[in-house]
Design brief:
CATH topology of the domain at 11-213 in chain B: Rossmann fold
Radius of gyration of chain A: 27 Å
Number of helices of chain B: 11
Oligomer: heterodimer
Structural class of chain B: alpha/beta
Strand content of chain B: 15-25%
Mean pLDDT of chain B: 96
Order of helices and strands of chain B: HEEHEHHEHEHEHHEEEEHEHHE
Structural class of chain A: alpha/beta
Number of strands of chain A: 23
CATH superfamily of the largest domain in chain A: Pyruvate-ferredoxin oxidoreductase, PFOR, domain III
Mean pLDDT of chain A: 92
Largest interface: A-B, 69 and 59 residues
CATH architecture of the largest domain in chain A: 3-Layer(aba) Sandwich
CATH class of the largest domain in chain A: Alpha Beta
Distance between the termini of chain B: 58 Å
CATH architecture of the domain at 11-213 in chain B: 3-Layer(aba) Sandwich
Shape of chain B: globular
Strand content of chain A: 15-25%
Distance between the termini of chain A: 50 Å
């Protein structure tokens, strides 16, 4: 049953990458997230990334129906879900075929031999059985008849049909992996007790199979207890594992509470942003008004209505939805109402790659509207800091009376990582521009002298009745104006208002070097991969290489030019064809800017970054 | 004790300082003045009144009202208004829209706001033409109608706004001629009283691009003979001499004459606007002779805000979360020391 081709010596590892793959119905997402939660509680730093097909239930056993979940755990800082895999758990031939490329040579693959039958091999387009034809010679294969062992473990549990039995084999695999990495099964058993509260036989069956896998791995001495990963050095405090989209939703909850405002979400479901809607609809106990609208346009226009009425208003979407919202964003620019638009980017154009990640909506966020229509654009860079940047987007919208586009992407939105929990008390203050009574010579477009934000008179407030709208406004009264000079003046004011936001955001800082030969530049969701590569170069002794990662894009931090000029060469790394690099080139002259781009719907890999950077050093 | 009575307003209190820019002779003036007269009768505070419009001639309306208002973008007024109302249910929210704005570019929002039954009021200025873009056919233009975009005659069959609205579950639908300010003012008051989405179709003459389009129904001389102004609980009788009435003959409405063939008032259908089943309301809406005006349908139903409030109260009662910290520290957390 087990043919351990090469027994490895026990190792102590700093970090390990594990990928669970199987059919989309095999429960790989659950298996992976259980493993990462357990490891986080053990004190490891973790990063995860799910990879699933856009078909909900693709045909069983097919190559395009493979669903996977990758976990990176370590005793050191972990910034990415990892590139190359130390352990692959493949529940079927299709999973093996589509994921073999990622496994490090010499490393381990656990397979469910029961699923390597003729039918599944054909569906995975294998001419011969890879377990028998010698094609896996370079890997350590652990063959386990997982389906039969699961069946055997459950033969005495009553009330289970065949389907239920087959579906719990993922827990057998999880049990094995727990044993291999010295993890306790307690957290997962507790999870069963909660999840299956009303179906005790499912608690019993899942626990039995999990333990069976754990003991199976223990009993078979052929599997060395090789890997011990000690807890990581992390800042003391209370943590939880959080997904990027959840963190985004929670950032808005915190902003609403801090600002003393009610939160309104107008949204229409779209992958990969829908989980923000899913999260916010749960929180009626905080008075959240989450409105699932009839389309993307109603999503944003209802939010504009709510903003006019005085709520903290947001709308959430992905690229195609941002395109549909363009005209309405212009309305919010013209009426100068606070509004946050979250765009969880995916591969484009058109429907593109809904479940894959990309950074290709940056220029759409910057310019994708009619007329000159500037907005604040910011980007989150890790699953956990989606919380901070959602909060920040709300703060900037309210303080500057403007739409703010918050960019995240499928990679950080669906990825999860430890989040050091922030209390609302710890968060920065949020001002808003509401007024409660008219002042002398009051007009709706009276502005704050410093920020240029107009004052915000909310319906229901006596003696502040006024009309706003999409037509150009007179600079003083806010009445409709077609005066040519007025239009030019207002165009400049709207731009200047956004430019001045630079005084209300932090400066850009570099890591590893303040000046030198090469500055690695990134923005948004690529922080983890770029940071890991830059750190590796630093550790290898390349002390002239710095790293600057941007979260604030429009406006840029006010010291941006100073920082960039301290390096001889700048390489801007993006998951698009060079959009941020265009923005830098438009803004700053005399810089030697090179691009490194990838448009495959995938994150950067560490190897490709290191290889490329070394060419330029 | 604080005074709880609302200030007594006159129409002037609702008139803004902006010069009205509609074409001379346009029915829009009648509608504007009717609204400014109706508002003081509604017992609302001026600061609680909000007008939201889309794009088109009608959509300039909010600029002329001294209330809160937003002139939004084409077709989206109902969606903007939904957000206003859900954010602050205490406000009296009015949508001003036209046949193009609500039934062409904004058709989707129009049907969904009716389906949801949010407590707001929609004034639909129907002139069967595009005015602001200068004379193209609209979704209510007639087949054969010659316009700038249909020089040989329109080939697209029209929507009947009432039929579409009731099909989309409108609970309140009224229709009124643009030249009858007294009745219109009263309808506005009734629409505000109604709890749920109220839709009023106003047959509004466009003097420039579609003049006299409703004249066969609305002209003073023919009005009483060609229109049946329905009132809840009253027999559906019309005509200068009050001698015509509606009866149901098998599955069709039929016009009969009182005193002929033994017909008396007891044979005439009595209008029931509050009936849930919309079948008869749909028949009334579709009737071409007589053209039915007044409140055709007024069915009391639960509003979206009421459903949302009840659900929120229930969730709050069953939850231990009062502050976001309660959520953040709930469930699976762990300590790093």
């Amino acid at each position: 049953m087990i043919t351990d081709k090469e027994i490895l010596q026990p190792e102590v590892l700093e970090a390990v990458v594990i990928r669970f793959v199987g059919d989309s119905g095999d429960g790989m997402q659950l298996t992976g997230s259980q493993f990462s939660d357990t490891s986080a509680m053990f004190g490891n730093d973790v990063a995860t990334f799910p990879n699933y097909p856009s078909e909900i239930r693709a045909p069983q056993g097919s190559l395009y129906g493979v669903s996977g979940f990758q976990v990176h755990i370590g005793s050191v800082e972990i910034s990415t879900p990892g590139d190359q895999v130390d352990l692959l758990v493949a529940m079927n031939p299709a999973g093996l075929k589509t994921n073999l490329y990622a496994v490090k040579p010499g490393h381990t693959i656990i397979v469910d031999t029961d699923s390597f039958n003729k039918k599944n091999l054909e569906k995975a387009q294998y001419d011969t059985n890879p377990l028998e034809d010698g094609s896996l010679e370079n890997y350590r294969i652990i063959e386990v008849a997982m389906s039969s062992l699961t069946k055997e473990a459950l033969k005495e549990v009553e009330g289970l049909d065949n389907k239920m039995i087959t579906r719990s084999k993922n827990m057998f695999a999880l049990g094995m992996v727990y044993w291999m990495y010295n993890r306790s099964t307690a957290h997962t058993i507790e999870f069963f007790n909660k999840k299956f509260k009303n179906t005790p036989n499912l608690i019993e069956s899942n626990t039995k199979v999990l333990n069976a896998g754990f003991y199976f791995a223990e009993t078979l001495e052929l599997i060395p207890n090789a890997y011990t990963i000690s807890p990581a050095k992390m800042r003391p405090g209370k943590y939880r594992i959080i997904m990027g989209n959840t963190a985004t939703a929670w950032g808005f909850l915190a902003a609403a509470e801090k600002s003393g405002m009610e939160l309104f979400l107008g949204s229409y479901p779209i992958t990969p942003a829908t989980d923000i809607l899913h999260e916010l609809v749960k929180h009626k106990h905080f008075g959240v008004k989450a409105f699932q609208a009839e389309d993307e346009i109603a999503g944003i226009t209802s939010a504009i209505g709510a903003s006019f009425a005085g709520d903290l208003a947001i709308t959430t979407t992905s690229g195609p939805g941002l395109a549909l919202k363009g005209e309405a964003i212009g309305l919010a620019v013209m009426t100068e109402l606070p509004l946050v638009i979250v765009n969880v980017q995916r591969g484009g154009p058109s429907t593109g790659l809904p479940t894959k990640t990309e950074q290709s909506d940056l220029l759409q966020a910057m310019y994708g509207r009619n007329g000159e229509s500037p907005v604040i654009v910011i980007a989150a860079s890790t699953p956990a800091n989606c919380f901070n940047f959602a909060y920040e987007a709300a703060r900037l919208a309210l303080e500057h009376m403007t739409p703010v586009i918050l960019l995240t992407d499928g990679y950080i939105a669906n990825g999860s990582a430890p989040w050091k929990i922030r209390t609302v008390d710890e968060m920065p203050e949020i001002r808003n521009n509401k007024i409660l009574a008219p002042t002398e010579n009051w007009y709706p477009y009276n502005r704050d002298e410093i920020t240029l934000a107009r004052n915000w008179a909310v319906p229901g407030t006596k003696d502040l009745e006024h009309r706003i709208g999409g037509l150009e406004k007179d600079k003083v009264t806010g009445n409709v104006s077609y005066v040519p000079e007025n239009h030019e003046y207002m165009t400049h004011i709207r731009a200047e208002k956004i430019r001045r936001v630079q005084y209300n955001i932090p400066e850009i800082k570099t890591e590893f070097a303040d000046e030198g030969d090469l500055l690695i530049v990134g923005w948004g969701g690529t922080y983890g991969t770029l940071h890991t590569a830059a750190k590796q170069l630093d550790e290898e002794g390349f002390k002239n290489v710095g790293f600057a990662h941007f979260n604030y894009i429009n406006p840029l931090p006010k010291n941006t030019e100073d920082v960039l000029k301290r390096f001889k060469k700048i390489v801007v790394c993006e998951l698009n064809s060079g959009q941020f690099s265009k923005i830098l080139k438009i803004n700053f002259n005399g810089l030697d800017i090179t691009q490194f781009n990838k448009v495959q719907g995938l994150p950067f890999s560490n190897d490709e970054l290191i290889q490329q950077f070394k060419k330029w050093i | 004790m604080e005074a709880t009575t609302v200030e007594k307003y006159t129409f002037k209190d609702f008139t803004s300082d902006q010069e009205v820019r509609w074409c001379p002779g346009c029915d829009d003036y009648v509608i504007l003045r009717s609204m400014q007269k109706a508002l003081p009768e509604m017992g609302l505070k001026r600061e609680d009144v909000v007008f939201i419009s889309g794009i088109g001639c009608s959509s300039r309306f909010p600029y002329y009202m001294d209330t809160y208002g937003m002139h939004s973008i084409h077709g989206r007024a109902t969606a903007v208004a939904s957000g206003v109302k859900l954010a602050n249910p205490k406000l009296s929210v009015w949508v001003v829209t036209g046949d193009g704005d609500s039934m062409a570019i904004g058709g989707n929002h129009f049907i969904h706001v009716l389906r949801r039954n949010i407590n707001l009021n929609i004034l639909l200025f129907n002139n069967e033409i595009y005015g602001l873009t200068k004379g193209q056919f609209s979704p209510t233009s007639l087949v054969g109608q010659k316009t700038k975009s249909s020089p040989y005659g329109n080939t697209q069959p029209p929507f009947s706004p009432g039929e579409l609205a009731i099909g989309a579950q409108a609970r309140f639908f009224a229709r009124i001629g643009g030249n009858t300010p007294k009745e219109m003012t009263e309808l506005f008051i009734q629409a505000e009283k109604f709890k749920g989405t109220s839709l009023i179709e106003i047959l509004q003459n466009c003097v420039i691009f579609n003049d006299n389009c409703f004249v066969k129904y609305t002209d003073k001389d023919v009005r009483e003979d060609k229109q049946l102004f329905v009132e809840h609980g009253k027999p559906m009788i019309f005509g200068k001499n009050k001698d015509k009435g509606l009866v149901l003959n098998r599955l069709k409405l039929e016009v009969v004459t009182l005193g002929e063939n033994g017909i008396t008032e007891v044979d005439i259908l009595v209008h029931d606007a509050k009936e849930q089943d919309p079948t008869l309301h749909q028949m009334l809406v579709r009737l071409e002779y007589p053209l039915v005006t007044g409140i055709i349908r007024s069915f009391d139903d639960v509003t979206l805000e009421e459903r949302e409030d009840a659900l929120t109260a229930k969730v709050k009662a069953g939850s231990n979360f009062t502050k976001t910290d309660d959520l953040f520290f709930s469930g699976e957390t762990y300590e790093i020391v």
